[in-house]
Predict the 3D structure of the following.
Amino acid sequence: MKYIRNSKGETLVEVIVSLVLFAVLLASVTVMVQTSLNIAERAHERNEETSQSVADIETGQSLTDVDNLTFTFSIHGEIDKEYEIPVVVKQSGGLKVYATE
Amino acid sequence: MSKTMKHVRNNSGASIIFVVIVAVVFLLAGASVLTAANLMSNTSIKNHTNKQLYYYAKSAADVISQEMVKNDGFAYEIINHIGLLGSTYITSENNVKEEVDVPSEIVFDCGISLFNSGVAYDEVKYDNVKIRLSGIKLIKSQKYQNASGQDYNVVEKYDLEIEKVTISFVTRYRGEEYKLALDYAFSAKGGREAVCQWFNSTGLNLQPLFNKAIDWNEFDRIFVRVHQNEVH
């Protein structure tokens, strides 16, 4: 009892400062974890979307025509010929492919 | 007084130290989680970029392959070029198989560009486009004469053999590179060799003897080699 009575302990200011610091820390860590979760979720969604797009392209399903381009294939040198081939750009999710019309 | 109790008694302000220690631990943990999430995000972006790069490369390869199949002019240009290379060849005996002196390998430098309404489509670039014909053999197989045996109405037949056709190019997209090489076996209707005929008197200008004698549809894609980010 003698020891306890003589203990200086924490002042109110120290406790308040500690609590404030702890609250700020907790808020920072919460923000960091929340941001991390959001980033991870977006990455997961992007992976899912990429996988789905790959499946769509491989099966030729759910592709949307988004653009018309001209594919120019030239042979240089003695042959010196140029072939212009119209192609259609098709898209699924974020992935694009193009093919002859 | 025991040492422990002394420590407790003198523990003034320890809560701040405790909070600082917890702060460091929590911040380290938070930073680790954030780093891992960013890594995951970058990996998914790279995965998407790589897939797009692959599909741009594959699209170009497929368009070229289809052009080879559909466009007879393309085949004629290639075959005639080989014929011109052997134009110094002088035909000799009738019905004697002779190999014409042509290079066994020919490489054509090519180019691929994409345009959108006349404006260059910059999203993807193709470099170092080459068509390599290897294992070329041109053999005079037969020489026909008219009934009287005179030379002026002669028709020569040539067997053209190309062991392999390789189309290779580098695709560039968002700072990434993809080298793709497609190997095709050459074959013709009814056999490995394409039958051609001597076309005019200016040189050994070959044309397929019969329409569609060279069936480009029978170009078989043997395998696809992909060397990502390896540009030689």
